[in-house]
């Protein structure tokens, strides 16, 4: 089973450049072309948030029309630049959310050898991650149903420190998640948001962030690190289950990467949700 985790598309609905620099529609098209070119492509796509740049409905239509022709199952969770209501309405079939935790978009995919658990950590209008108490209760109950199943926990915001100080705002209520993860050593954390591949460990389990399909975070460990990006080669994670072994490959996307930058995240917007 091959699970491609694509993250942080930041597609704009108005056709403008994201953060005044990045042609994220071109990035999306390059990702699609790359996936089409693979002789052994993924069986499923998981999108770990920031699908849109400012929650614009048109961005979700662009994304849906770009990825649907691949003919793969697609599962998405929101990031801080998304709107849940629009994801639910426009990305038909990509967010089969469990009604128990509405309006959060959380659900599991259990039809393969690896259980995919999709966790919503966004709060409308906030840049930072939140482990909502209702979501944590749902997660605890969900994982307990199959305590031995190999499990990937997908969430936009990583609960662990990345060393990029501006991005290291602690996730609210992460202690609740930590207690659940400690009870589930069969799980792995697969996050987005950071726009860089980082491989680590948290509460005793492997933990990773995905590179972005769009721009990459500037690698800057100084005090101001985590607040600028660079046009490095985009990528994604490929989680490969093969005869009882689960490996995560860091993959690159053929692109016109110039490595230009660093650039600030100009006009960044975390949309508030007004409906649903
Ligand atoms: Fe992002
Ligand atoms: Fe984000």
Describe this structure in words.
The chain is α/β, with parallel strands linked by helices. It has a single domain, classed as Purple Acid Phosphatase, chain A, domain 2 (4-Layer Sandwich). It has 5 helices and 14 strands. The chain has a 6-stranded mixed beta sheet. Helix 1 packs parallel to helix 2. It is globular. It starts with a strand and ends in a 12-residue tail after the last strand. The mean pLDDT is 96. Bound molecules: fe (ii) ion (FE2) (2 copies). One fe (ii) ion binds next to loops.
**Rounded radius of gyration (Å):** 17 Å
Q: Total domains, how many?
A: 1
- Report the sheet with the most strands, covering strand number, pairing sense and barrel closure: 6 strands, mixed
Across the major sheet, the strand order is 4-5-6-7-9-8
- Here the CATH topology equals Purple Acid Phosphatase, chain A, domain 2
Uncertain runs: none
What is the share of helical residues?
Answer: 10-25%
Short descriptors:
276 residues, alpha/beta, Purple Acid Phosphatase, chain A, domain 2, six-stranded mixed β-sheet, five-stranded mixed β-sheet, globular, binds fe (ii) ion
Q: Gist?
A:
By secondary structure, this protein is α/β, with parallel strands linked by helices. Helices cover 20% and strands 24% of the residues.
Per-chain topology:
Elements (H helix, E strand, L loop, with lengths): L1 E5 L17 H14 L6 E5 L8 H11 L6 E4 L6 H7 L16 E3 L5 E5 L13 H13 L5 E5 L18 H9 L4 E5 L6 E5 L2 E5 L6 E2 L10 E3 L4 E8 L2 E8 L10 E2 L12
Helix pairs in contact: 1-2
The structure holds fe (ii) ion (2 copies).
One fe (ii) ion binds next to loops.
């Amino acid at each position: 089973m091959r699970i491609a985790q694509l993250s942080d598309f930041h597609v704009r609905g108005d056709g403008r450049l994201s953060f005044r620099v990045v042609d994220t529609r071109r990035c999306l098209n390059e990702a699609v072309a790359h996936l089409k070119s693979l002789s052994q492509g993924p069986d499923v796509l998981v999108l770990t948030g920031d699908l849109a740049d400012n929650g614009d409905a048109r961005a979700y239509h662009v994304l849906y029309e770009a990825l649907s022709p691949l003919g793969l199952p697609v599962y998405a969770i929101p990031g801080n630049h998304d709107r849940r209501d629009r994801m639910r309405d426009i990305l038909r079939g990509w967010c089969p959310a469990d009604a128990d935790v509405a309006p959060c978009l959380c659900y599991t995919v259990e039809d393969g050898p690896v259980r995919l658990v999709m966790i919503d950590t966004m709060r409308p209008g906030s840049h930072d991650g939140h482990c909502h108490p209702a979501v944590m209760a749902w997660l605890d109950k969900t994982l307990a149903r199959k305590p031995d199943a190999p499990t990937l926990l997908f969430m936009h915001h990583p609960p662990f420190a990345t060393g990029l100080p501006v991005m290291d705002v602690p996730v609210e209520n992460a202690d609740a998640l930590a207690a659940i993860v400690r009870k589930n050593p069969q799980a792995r954390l697969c996050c987005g948001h950071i726009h860089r591949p980082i491989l680590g460990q948290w509460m005793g389990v492997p933990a990773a962030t995905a590179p972005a399909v769009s721009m990459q975070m500037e690698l800057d460990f100084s005090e101001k690190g985590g607040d600028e990006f660079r046009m490095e080669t985009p990528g994604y994670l490929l989680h490969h289950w093969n005869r009882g072994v689960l490996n995560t490959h860091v993959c690159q996307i053929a692109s016109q990467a110039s490595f230009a930058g660093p650039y600030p995240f100009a006009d960044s917007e975390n949309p508030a949700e007004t409906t649903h």
